[in-house]
Sequence to fold (515 residues):
Amino acid sequence: MLWWLLPSIIGTILSLYTARQAGLMMRPPSGTYMTALSVMIAWWCAGQWASFLWNDLDYRLLVAKLQYLAIATVPILWFSVALTFSGYGRFLQRWYPVLWLMPVATIALAFSNQYHLQVWSRFTIAPDSLALEIEYGPWFSTHVTYSYSAVTIATLMLALKIGFTRGRRLQFMAVILSPLIVIAVNAPYILGIDLLPFDPTPSGFAVACLILLFALRQHMFATLPVAREYTLEKLNDGIVVIDDHGLIADSNPAARQIFGVELMRIGRHFSEALPAGISLNADVSTEVQLPDRRWLDIRISRLQSIDGPTRGQVALIRDVTREKGLQASLLQSQKELEALNSKLNNLAHTDELTGLANRRSLYERVRSEWSRSTRHKKPLSMILIDFDNFKLINDNYGHQVGDQVLQRASGIVRQIIRPEDLAARHGGEELAILLPDTNAKDAVDIAQRLGAALEALQYHDEAGQAFVVTVSSGVASRCPNDKSPDMMIARADKALYQSKADGRNRVTLADAVNG
Fold:
């Protein structure tokens, strides 16, 4: 007879363990209700094996009444788990007192059954046996109808919430199978079909607890699986779950759309979908281009299980082709803008006709070199060059020929001066040469070389007649009496006019003029 105790003892142990795991792994309030449900199942199972410990009618009746604390509340607790887990917590809070009216009435009637026989009309022990001979009263049918309705509605709500979709079929089956097992073993007993010499309901709950425990250990009742339809399934980014061997364990529709259904087939190696060189052995974050020229941002992270060790990886894949295109366009626009800024800056500092620095750029550089010369006590010189009788060139040959003279002469000047020197168009047909770290003597030499080179240059008019142009130059070097760069330039200009007054085609040093 001891084997009669074994199913209900197992049910008690498994239910208590399930209660502990539910408290650890599920969030309130559904976790709280799940814990309470498991405790009540354990209470029911404990009452089953406890009733066999003493073959006394009063004792057996008392245990049966105590069992009704669980029998009446388990359906409502299961219903509460389903409602909170399915997102109807507010509805449950509002109608909770009404839901408990029937269980409270059932418990009260069970404990006062001797006065009205509503729960049991006959409750006796079978002769020469531990089995009970029970006939149920009118209220028991009401209780069974209410309980079955609560369990059925709760099961349907959970099943609809989870859905029979790819990746959730196992948990869907667990939700459906658990109450079906209880109903399958309980229904024959309450209908009076004695397949066993004892109530098999606790045994059914033992199996149900085992299934629920399995579901909990697989994290089937965590928030993530139930919400998967509204999160992973709806994400525009691809999600691929990879096992310890690099094989695909799951993927969402976005990942299958990015890579194709065949490459995302469960059990296929994830590396087959990726370009060569992407490692799955460590956390990576990289951008790769597929053969079809799409760009993907791939981030692979390790998965951490609750008990500590890593369990494969999860890959987050974003199609960033559009972003890369916009980025390339932005970079191209930036380069074009930089080129335009450079061109504008060049135009702002360059004379359009001669290609030399303009007057503004010249004076900016003069101020800078003047400061450097002051700090380091270095010499600084300036040459002013004016084309002799340039007005006659414009009058006799036309302004177009005059412009060609300025352009060709400017090219010769750039060839002769040093890279650190600055040649500029000072105005009209007048050029200026700024010579850093150059004393008066060297500046005169440079001016003479420039004059000779420009005089040797031949020009041609529209008729093909050759002519030459000479230049007059004035040279000034910084001296102690110069208080500003303008004073040095003014002395160079005065020397230039002296060259013209002395007959042109010559170089005059400002120091000699002032002396």
